[in-house]
Design goal:
This protein has 533 residues and is an alpha+beta fold. Helix content is 30%, strand content 20%. It is globular and about 70 Å long. Mean pLDDT is 93; it is low at 1-17 and 19-23.
Amino acid sequence: MKIKRFTLSVCAALVMALPMAGSHAESVLRVASTTADVPLTTGQPSQGAEGQRFVGYTLYDPLVRWDLSRADAPAKLAPGLALSWESDPETHKVWTFKLRPGVKFHDGSAFDAQAVVWNLDKVLKRDAVQFDQAQAAQASQYVLNVASYRVVDPMTVEIVTKEADSVFPYMMAGVMISSPERFKEVGQDWTKFANKPSGTGPWMMDKLVPRERIEMVRNPNYWDPARVPKTDRLVVYTMPDPNTRVASLLSGQVDWIEAPPPDTIPRLKSAGMNIVTNIYPHIWPYQLSYSPDSPFRDLRIRKAANLAIDREGLVEFLAGTAMPAQGAVDPNHPWFGNPNFKIKYDPEQALALMKEAGYGPDRPLKVKFAISTAGSGQMQPLPMNEFIQENLKAVGFDVEFVVLEWETLRSQRRAGSDDPVNKGIHGINNSFGYWDPFIGLMGTSGSTQRPPKGYNWGGFSDPEADKLVEAAFNEFDPAKQDQILAKLHERMVDQAMWIWVVHDLNPRAMSPKVKGFVQAQSWFQDLTPVSVE
């Protein structure tokens, strides 16, 4: 199979234009992200998990945070701006959050229960002066189950959900808390707030250059002394082109790059760069449409597509920076179960299924996939899609790609397959996490979880899956919930709900000057312990 390989074409003008951030004795960490623009800085960041990683969790805090301090185990929830949380034992709909005292926003104002309510209003209450449609869109799937909320006392908030929701604390880990006082100070204007943001996070914004970079400085008064940043300044550049990221690292313009192209890894290593990888809860799939015009409504075609892909060959093509997928979660995960349909490379069986469905190389099935040029968790989407296009062609698929910028692709995913914006699209190549049960399984497979409520982009509908989703929502014992989720995953795989390709090992390349980074088993990472020699 002939596949177009990466070439290290250096965009010299762009690289030389990068500001040499920091001078004198200031310690600076310079990161090249895959984003095409700086994520929203108002609180709820855009640009997916990468936006959350480099803007959300740097400038802001949620009530419930992720503990990202370990590389040897999946990240778990931990107290953030809330010291504790619990649901009422009778209905499991009333959640009480006890807040952390003594926390200050970057502008010096105090964090309290009223600030939490104000922030929920900014994404839920359309007639509130602080309501922001841009943030509401980014937060929609975190807060859609919220029915009401109120201040109990200055350091206690009560949030009531519409339905019993065992995964609600995970949702709260995605809701960022912005400063009400700063919003007032800038004339109740989110555009002005974006240029002068104020959260409670470990970093404070110093400078923003749209489509180029964001610069942040250490918050010396951060509420967790153990997580006061080790560097004075953090600079995050927007570099969607992978070759430009590599050139920037090799030239010393940046210290750290996301998603280095696989065939540049030997050169990076020979130049003394460190390549860091780790398994994390992530899958690179095609989410399939079940809309009336989609051929993927046929189980035979869905299975054929899964059997047509040479995942081992793709992993080799990616220089070992991924592992073959056998479903939505990795085989060692407690939610994997024991599916009857075994996802593997079996082109003969794929051809047989396609022939049974009336298609083959001599009568190809035309399908159209929306893909991105780059983006958070998207790995190397263009060459990977070319590889898979050839695999699918061999068994009778004629694949056409609609290539979109990452945030545009995400907006089409949030719209759902039946929306006019997705007319004629049969699948969407949007990488996905499974750090919590909802985003990983329940929100993607439940027929009631179509956007904006959940992540079921294509409208998959299966009565057995629905029963398991409902059972998981109502099971608050973690061990019992894991058993339900394993059965749900089995059903998703047996129904070939999506085309699952590989699990990303999340490669990053860093200068040897970068010290102290612990690559958590998460889409999110903690930059506070990182130093630069």
